[in-house]
Amino acid sequence: MNDPVLFYGASAALACVLLLGALEKIKDLTAFTAAVSGYDLLPAGLVGVFARAYVLAEIAAGALLLIPGRQPLGAALALGVLAVATLALAINLARGHRDIDCGCSGLVAKAPGAPHGGLTGWLVLRNGALALWTLPALASLSGHARGLQWADAAAVFGLAMTAVGLYFTANHLLASHLKLRNL
């Protein structure tokens, strides 16, 4: 678990997902704020503040995951961001509120045929898988078994891009599932 290729690859992949997610939310902060409001978990006066703080936390986590020596802090913050989102999903799924915008942007939120993207247990599983990407950075607190070699850069890049590709493929499949569910 302490191999630097796994550590840097997982950190870079999670940073990409978080930063791209934050970018989508920033592009339409009004829609994200409306999605946060739709979860009906916060007083109306705190929804806008929370939405902005959440996006800033996503950006901070993603940036810290890319800074050498700060990856464990970024992973801990990413885990917190994912925990908040997953808890909100789980609460609303338990309430039976499935036809609200997930707030996660991208393909899932814009699934054709879905009124607002919709909530599903698959989003909880997806967030759980993303949380697993924090483990190499959190485990790095005990140090690496070996130093990073120059040739490892290709493996790190390949691992990160493969993981990001799998994430977006899973999101596309989830969007297709939501479309079929709403036919």
Quick structural overview:
Helix content is 73%, strand content 0%.
Notable characteristics:
183 residues, 73% helix, single chain, mainly alpha
Fold topology:
Elements (H helix, E strand, L loop, with lengths): L3 H24 L1 H10 L5 H23 L4 H25 L10 H4 L11 H12 L2 H5 L12 H30 L2
Helix pairs in contact: 1-3, 1-8, 2-3, 3-4, 4-6
Radius of gyration: 17 Å
Please tally the helical runs, counting DSSP H or I stretches of 4 or more residues: 8
Q: Please report which band the strand proportion falls in: under 5%, 5-15%, 15-25%, 25-35%, 35-45% or over 45%.
A: under 5%
Instruction: Give the topology string: H per helix, E per strand.
Output: HHHHHHHH
Structural class of the secondary elements?
mainly alpha
Helix content estimate: over 70%
Shape: globular
Determine the mean pLDDT: 82
- N-C termini distance: 44 Å
Low-confidence residue ranges:
110-116
How many β-strand stretches? 0
> In the residues, how many domains can be counted?
1
Biggest sheet record: none
Describe the structure.
This is Methylamine utilization protein MauE. InterPro entries: Methylamine_util_MauE. Residues 6-136 form the Methylamine utilisation protein MauE domain. Keywords: Membrane, Transmembrane, Transmembrane helix. With 183 residues, the chain is an all-alpha fold. It has one domain. Helices cover 73% and strands 0% of the residues. The protein contains eight helices and no strands. The chain has helices at 4-27, 29-38, 44-66, 71-95, 106-109, 121-132, 135-139, 152-181. Helix 1 packs antiparallel against helix 3 and helix 3 (44-66) packs antiparallel against helix 4. The longest helix has 30 residues, at 152-181. It starts with a helix and ends with a helix. Mean pLDDT is 82; it is low at 110-116.
